[in-house]
Amino acid sequence: MNIKIKRILPKSFDLKRYSVILGLSLITTIMLASALIAMPYTEKISSKLQYDLNLKENSYKARRYTVELDLTNEDPDKVEQKIVRTKDIIMKRLLDYGVESVSITEANDTDPSDDITAEVSNEGIPVETTGLQDDTSGDKEQKRYLDIQVDTSKDIDIISQIIRSRSFIRIVTPKEDVDFNNPDDQIAQYLPDNYNDTKFTRYSFRNIAIKELPTSTGGTAYFGIYKVNPTDKGDFLDLLDKYAGQRIGIEIDGFVSPTLVPSQFDRGAQTNRSVNPEFAPVVGQNRSEAQIADILLNSGVIPLQYSVTDEVDLASSVIKPDYPTALFAILAGVIATIGFIGFRNRKEQEETVIFFLSAIGTLSVWITYLKFFYLPVDLDVMILTGFILIYLVKLFTYRRKGTFELEIVVLATSIMFVWLTGGYTDLLAKAVLEVALFALIIVNMMGYYINNIRRYLLK
Asked: Which residues cross the membrane (predicted)?
């Protein structure tokens, strides 16, 4: 039996043509909507939705910390090296947390008339040195200070915690003559004087891996897995074997956290010789606490003891341009670049049109992305990223057709900067990575857009 299906569409209907036209209409709609949302003073586009730029400038706080270094019993020949190491680790911790602007100034307080300073930039490079001399003329003990200034949108209380915490770890064992179960002395278990020191300090462990693991109560928590150096592993396992099923202490900055040693470390009770337990006390109940623990425990060992003697709030020095001015500056850069390209390459009108549409489209989509997901943004970083965006779009537009080496280099460089830097450099690298991805997509899309408009709509 032959079944004839009635033709719904006329023979003259070109499915491919109308599919392309539909795609062009969709691209046009997306570009126009993105441009509308990205423009200033048009954030509120309906009574139910409001797209605002999440500006960080108003949330910036500045604070200065005065840190006194304890040089008691320190080798004079190694003091300078240890001070530099201390500054580097504090700087690394702050940048790892995401503090945008940090400066560390070293000062010698033996003679107030001689302000000896050496400032360290966000990248840990000395940017100003007026001299550094030791007072060897007398027996007066020299006091050394660090002035730490931060200007950031991050939680200032957590920053204070990071600066105040040396986080030097020592494993301690309970003294036999101390009653830790005495209800009248509940703080006994937290006092270092009630414990015996062991040889195991932070130097005895390669790193402390922070992982989220299940707990015995059915929930989850973040644990610090102590990775012992090979030279100390045998002695450390002997210690855990001795105290298996009992409590030892982890002393950090004069406070002891009692920790129960799992019974799995009892070698005599092990029935399965393949058991390889890990010493992993709890370091936090949530991701935020785990992040701070990771920064403090794995950013290096500060060689000097210190204390914060002063803490003063300052006025933020962050430049606060308004959004319309920032967008106008970027658009002015686009127009100036178009004029320059058009003057030099009069024969490449198609590439110039693609560049213009791609630059406006990339900028609009990027700002819409920031508004839609309400991502925090610095306007000064946004302005600089905008000009880098113009350059990237120009490179992608005028590259050799069919080659992607340039795009790979740009993306790889941005990813490396995100991984290896901190502060404003890290913010800029992340923004450049975002716009590079958008530019790569939109430049190629605009070539398709222009070619098909000419083929289907302008012929």
From this structure: 20-41, 323-341, 353-375, 381-397, 404-421, 427-450
Write a three-state SS string for 392-457.
HHHHHHCCCCCCCHHHHHHHHHHHHHHHHCCHHHHHHHHHHHHHHHHHHHHHHHHHHHHHHHHHHC
Q: Is 297 exposed, middle or buried (0-12, 13-18, 19+ CB in 10 A)?
A: buried
Q: Which two tokens stand for residue 95?
A: 């940048």
- Collapsing DSSP to helix, strand or coil, 148 comes out as strand
Give which of 95, 151, 62, 149 is closest to 425, Cα–Cα. 95
pLDDT above 60 (res 180): yes
Structure tokens at 112: 């107030």
DSSP string, 210-233: EEEEE-TTSSEEEEEEEEE-HHHH
pLDDT in tens, 50-100: 677 888 877 889 999 999 999 988 888 999 999 999 999 999 999 999 998
pTM of the model: 0.76
Question: Token digits for 137?
Answer: 């003329």
Closest CA to 241 of 141, 312, 173: 173
**Dihedral sign, Cα of residue 420, residue 150, residue 381, residue 97:** positive
- pLDDT higher for 347 or 190? 190
* 369, 372, 377, 379: CA torsion to nearest 10: 80
| Block residue for tokens 């606060």 | 320
pLDDT value, residue 14? 65
Tokens read off for 33:
């909507």
pLDDT score of 331: 77
User: Under a CB-based contact definition with an 8 Å cutoff, are residues 269 and 288 in contact?
Assistant: no
Question: Exposed, middle or buried by CB within 10 Å (0-12, 13-18, 19+), for 102?
Answer: buried
Q: How far, in Å, CA of 165 to CA of 208, rounded?
A: 17
What gap in Å lies between CA 20 and CA 456, rounded to an integer? 8
Give the pLDDT of residue 426: 82
For 127, list phi and psi in degrees, rounded to 5: -110, -10
Our CA angle for 192, 195, 200, nearest 5°, is 90
Instruction: Report CA torsion sign: 25, 31, 34, 36.
Output: negative
What pLDDT is recorded for position 131? 37
In angstroms, the CA 442 to CA 203 distance is 51
pLDDT of residue 55: 80
